[in-house]
Design brief:
This protein has three helices and four strands. By secondary structure, the protein is of the alpha+beta class.
Amino acid sequence: MYAGSLFERLTRGNSSSTNISSEDAIYQSIANNLSRILSTNAGSSETVEDYGRPDLNNTHLSLKDSLELIEDSLEKCISKYEPRLYNAKIGVSRSSLKMNKMDIQVEGFLIIDGKSYKVNFKADLLSNGKVKVYKDED
C-alpha cells in the first residue's frame, strides 16, 4: 500500500485522504508534486536552479518559441524531479491561452505493481497565481 512521499507523510497530519486506494494515492501524490513544480519559478530554489517552471514572461521570443521553450524546460524538470512519471511529454494548449492563464497537459507512463500505465494530468495555471493539477480522464 502506498503511504505517500516523505514530504506528504510529514505534512499529512489528520488528513482524511487515508481512505483512498493505493493507485489513487499515487496519482494524487504525483499531481501534488507536479503542482509544486509548476508553482515554483525556476531559479528560485536555493538548492537547485533547474527546479520549477521557466519564466512565463519571456518577451524577447515569439509566442511559438516561448511555448516550445516552456514545454522543453518542463519535460526536463519533470523527468528529473518526478521520476515516477517517465517518458513525460508536455503540451501547452494553444487554443486556451488567455491573459494570465495557461492550460498544460502532462502525459507519461507510471509503473504500478510491475505494470506500465499511460497517465494524463492537466494543469491549469490560473490568473490568481495558483496552479490546479488533476488526473485527466480523457
